[in-house]
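Thread title: Can someone regenerate the structure for this chain?

I was given the following input by a collaborator and told the matching structure tokens would be attached. They weren't. Posting the sequence so someone can regenerate them.
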Amino acid sequence: MKTILVIAAHPDDEVLGCGGTIARLTSEGSNVYTLILGEGVTSRDRKRDLAKRENEIAELKKQAENANRILGVKKVYTFDFPDNRFDSVPLLDIIKTIEETKDGLKPDIVFTHHIGDLNIDHQVTFKAVMAACRPTIDESVKEIYSFEIPSSTEWNAPSSLTYFMPDYFVDVNKSLDIKINALKEYEMELRDFPHPRSLRAVELNAKQWGVKMGFEAAEAFKTVRIRT
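Best answer:
Regenerated them for you:
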């Protein structure tokens, strides 16, 4: 039985990036946990105002709990790093937060963001994960995979450093509906089609990856590290 930790910058990233895979893994008996670093929503204001967004932040955490429950996640760990302002926080603070959760769970596998995403919080999260999961002799994490986030991964300027080039694909045909139902819980984050974060676009993206791999629906990942 595998223990898996999904490390996401914002509430809804975990569902967008690997919700179908999470649902499949939990149905197959794996223990999956989610760590969400950022509070969400405060970047919608010119200046961070926690008091102004207090109710929305609390509601977003409830939505995260509901969404992850649908996926079969055992526990969601939420933190309050400033939304879209991770680069204003010492990287070590984020690394330590990840380490504390990771060291308590001893996960075998970690899923997290792609280094080339447009969103700065995604970039910082990836770097923090790599530092927190350094391949020391006693490190439990043996596999790390990065996922795409619609409206961030594909919106950055393409280059050899930013382009998402997946090499690992998971058949999520049987769990895609579960992913969509979980995503519906994030009412505050959804957009109308043809926005990439609309329900229809998310479904179409999964079907597009599926067609490329001979499945009806799939999620795509970039292998970051495998230790055997």
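The helical segments are 13-27, 54-71, 91-105, 120-132, 176-184, 199-213.
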